[in-house]
Write a structure and sequence with these properties.
This protein is of the alpha+beta class and 264 residues long. It has three helices and 18 strands. Strands 3, 4, 5, 8, 9, 10, 11, 12 and 17 form a nine-stranded mixed beta sheet that branches. Strands 1, 2, 6, 14 and 18 form a five-stranded mixed beta sheet that branches. A hairpin with a 4-residue loop joins β4 and β5.
């Protein structure tokens, strides 16, 4: 009888020990913590794309295509380059500076450039035709191969005169009835501080920049208007060359180019 009782006591002791081990092991287990669902960061910037579209009488401008200008001269366009600087967005109490200098080769049609800007609604978009003096007369060797003021772009004049702001070249014939090959050349280049002028690129409605998206501003350039504006006209027969030494023509041409910009 005592032997049976001892057996029962030992068996219950083993069961109790086993249960205690199970409880201890269960208490030591550490489950992996449940990570909270990640919250995507709120975008604080978006993209602004500026596109310049050269046109002739409302159609895409084509190099080496014969046109008739304001004076009914036969003419072609062989080169159109320009520098636009001091590009910035403004609203009531802040501003976003985008670029101090940009380079545009418009000979082959529309060109676009993009910048990252803070989100928001911007009421003013302004720039300048040309390069501000402290950059215009700086050492061109300081600008790397991808910089808009690098000499490889072919817009640099020399130490005394800096950069050409607008380069416009081609050929013409003042006889509208002629069918001969166009031989006479024109080359109107503006530059120096006298030709630096402000540009208003503000669309009719505010520019709204949204996070992680691109807003485009399209500026159409009516190249046919390079020869006339409300302030006068240019006669290629007598006004066909400006290389820094024909300030009256350079200033007149600058006014016409400025007036040729229209913003969508």
């Amino acid at each position: 009888m005592l032997r049976i009782r001892h057996f029962i006591i030992m068996r219950y002791t083993h069961i109790a020990s086993f249960a205690l081990v199970v409880l201890v092991l269960a208490g030591c287990r550490k489950d992996e913590p449940i990570s909270p669902t990640p919250v995507p960061p709120v975008a604080t910037t978006g993209k602004l794309r500026l596109t310049l579209v050269p046109e002739w009488e409302g159609q895409p401008m084509q190099r080496f295509t014969e046109y008739r200008n304001f004076s009914d001269y036969r003419m072609t366009i062989e080169l159109l380059k320009m520098h636009i600087g001091e590009i910035q967005l403004l609203d009531a109490d802040t501003e976003a500076f985008l670029a101090d200098a940009t380079y545009w080769d418009l000979g082959n049609g529309p060109v676009s450039q993009e910048w990252t800007v803070p989100i928001g609604s911007w009421s003013v978009f302004q720039a300048a035709l040309g390069i501000r003096p402290e950059l215009n007369y700086a050492d061109p060797a300081a600008y790397g191969p991808n910089h808009p003021l690098n000499v490889s772009n072919g817009t640099y004049w020399n130490w005394a005169t800096g950069y050409r702001f607008v380069m416009f070249e081609g050929r013409y014939d003042p006889d509208p009835a002629s069918t001969a090959t166009l031989i006479s050349a024109y080359a109107i280049h503006t530059g120096m501080d006298t030709c630096y002028t402000d540009l208003d690129l503000t669309p009719s409605t505010p520019i709204v920049i949204e996070g992680d998206s691109t807003t485009e501003v399209v500026v159409r350039i009516a190249v046919d208007r390079f020869f006339y504006s409300s302030t006068g006209s240019i006669d290629l027969a007598t006004e066909n060359t400006a290389h820094g030494n024909n300030i009256p023509l350079a200033l007149k041409f600058t006014r016409h180019v400025k007036a040729s910009f229209s913003v969508q």
